[in-house]
Amino acid sequence: MATSQRSSSTGIKVVIVGAGFAGLTAAIECHRKGHEVLVLESFPELKILGDIISFAPNSGRIFQRWEGVDAKLDPIIHKSDGLRIKTWKGEDLTKQTWGEEGKKYGKAYNGHRGEIHEIVYYHALEIGIDIRLGHKVDDYFETESEAGVIANGERFTCDAVLAADGVRSKGRTIVLGYEDKPKSSGYAIYRTWFDSAALADDPDTAWMVTNGDRHCCWIGPDIHFIAASVKNGKDFSWVCTHKDEADVEEGWQETGPLSDAMKVLEGWDPVVQKILKATPDPLIDWKLVYRDPLPTWISPKRRIALIGDAAHPFLPTSIQGASQAMEDGATMAVCLSKSGKAHVQEGVAAFEALRYERVRAAQKTGEDTRNMWHKADFDDVKKNPDSMKLKREDWLLNFDAEEYAEKNYAATVALLKDPVAVRQLNVPSRTEVLASTEVAASA
Ligand SMILES: Cc1cc2nc3c(=O)[nH]c(=O)nc-3n(C[C@H](O)[C@H](O)[C@H](O)COP(=O)(O)OP(=O)(O)OC[C@H]3O[C@@H](n4cnc5c(N)ncnc54)[C@H](O)[C@@H]3O)c2cc1C
Questions:
Q1: Which structural domain range is residue 217 located in?
Q2: What is the distance between the alpha carbons of residues 443 and 437, in angstroms, rounded to a whole number?
Q3: Ligand 1 centre and the CA of 165: distance in Å?
Q4: Considering the chain, what is the average pLDDT of its residues?
Q5: CB under 8 Å to 201, separation ≥6 — which residues?
Q6: Ligand 1 pocket residue status of 19, Cβ below 6 Å
């Protein structure tokens, strides 16, 4: 249910660096909670960038709280009844249906990253959030009583800074003094998004793009290829995760020739070959890198926090990177309203404590899914095709970040202050608090 109504002013000033999904969610949620928000984004103008992105029900419920946003997102999101899973030769293995999941957990939003981002961006502007484009943050500072950033030579002071500056976060290096070197994961992804007209004309591919949306995954030896149509079949997107030892460059705008993907997918299902033929050249070629988990996401004086990809990048097979970025924003907004202006540092520390273990567990699902698909023994798989279904678990999807933070803030702060005493009082440990499904069940 949309509840965009704003709480009374807390007097807390928050500067947010970056207007991706982490930054915009933090901004909208902080605004809802009555904090004063300023967003600084380095892009000089809004551009519709990217291709397919997924928001699972755990973040879908955040969109639904924002007046009018679900109605704008609904016409542009993928709507199929399920994910067909096939071998690379095209044999049907199983179908994972979404109907029951939707009833159990709520709505997921999968669509074009740039189009969804545009809707959220304009929603933030409509509710009165101050977003300044063309403001690249070059430096951060903090004292016991305030924090801030420097952008375009101007100094912006506030109570708390949220560095939502993405996977190549400068905030991470400046704030934590931590050079976070990416390591090759040995995999890369080809990605693309295009008009489906050519696929509709071919009888072998028409089923993917006519009479509604379709979602299909082909699994082969150490490779998977997932295709989806969107907007009643009008748009089409595919991604292919494959082995790649070439280098560790990463970026959403790095391109690679279609012929490379054709080589990787040689001998695959003729439907896949036809999809490749209809695909415009070049593709986005995104190297998947590993980053070790950061030891902390918050600054020494606890007035600056990393959120979203800046704090915790995700493998795409987790299907959770954007959702966890949104959960960060919703959690931080609650923590600051609970802490109040006089105890912002307590709120920032509680944010990290509330989020850290859940995020680690969600990150881990990305590796598990990739290994499940890429290392599959097809003799075993054919005996138990359902083993290839995505694991859709309660603890991850049946979760409401706002409610969870509301309910667990006080226990978390007590734990941070005096873990021994809290233990004696029989208050659950941080791990137990985070693993609790009490909130999830009531969501
Ligand atoms: C251009 C682009 C295209 C993408 N396409 C896809 C896609 O197709 N599919 C997918 O699943 N994910 C995509 N992503 C990543 C996805 O949006 C994130 O993984 C996820 O949503 C978490 O978002 P985030 O806000 O933490 O990071 P991001 O979405 O990366 O946002 C970070 C923001 O911070 C800004 N920024 C960086 N440094 C500074 C600075 N010094 N000062 C001010 N602002 C700064 C960046 O310009 C960016 O807008 C894309 C990201 C970008 C930036």
A1: 183-290
A2: 10
A3: 7
A4: 90
A5: none
A6: yes
The predicted-structure confidence for 361-394, as pLDDT tens digits, reads as follows: 998 888 888 888 888 888 888 889 888 888 888 9
Cβ of 252 less than 6 Å from ligand 1: yes
Ligand 1 contacts CB of residue 49 (under 6 A): yes
Does 142 lie in the same domain as 55?
yes
Confidence of residue 25 (pLDDT cuts 50, 70, 90): very high
- Cα 119 to middle of ligand 1, angstroms: 15
User: Closest residue (by CA) to atom 29 of ligand 1?
Assistant: 20
- On whether both 419 and 334 belong to a single domain, the answer is yes
Same domain, 344 and 436: yes
For the Cβ of 53 lying below 6 angstroms from any atom of ligand 1, the answer is yes
Find out whether the beta carbon of 18 lies less than 6 Å from any atom of ligand 1.
Answer: yes
Confidence band for 131, pLDDT divided at 50, 70 and 90: very high
Cα–ligand 1 centroid distance for 20 (angstroms):
5
| Residue 45 sits in the same domain as residue 125 | yes
Q: Average pLDDT in the 271-276 region?
A: 98
Nearest CA to ligand 1 atom 9: 53
Q: Kindly report, residue by residue over 348-358, the tens digit of the pLDDT.
A: 999 999 999 99
On the question of pLDDT at 427 being above 70, the answer is: no
Query: Does any domain span residue 397?
Result: yes
pLDDT of residue 315: 85
Percent of the chain with pLDDT over 70: 92
How far does residue 22's CA lie from ligand 1's centre (Å)? Answer: 8
Instruction: Answer yes or no: is pLDDT of 415 > 70.
Output: yes
> Last residue of a domain, which of 268, 290, 312?
290
Identify whether residues 266 and 403 lie together within a single domain: no
- pLDDT of 249 reads 60
Asked whether residue 356 falls in the same domain as residue 233, the answer is: no
Separation of CA 145 and ligand 1 centre (Å): 30
Ligand 1 centroid distance, CA of 424 (Å): 43
- For residue 304, CA distances in Å to 76, 176, 330, 405 come to 35, 10, 16, 19
**pLDDT of 332 higher than 90:** yes
Confidence at residue 299, expressed as pLDDT on a 0 to 100 scale: 95
The total domain count for the chain is: 2
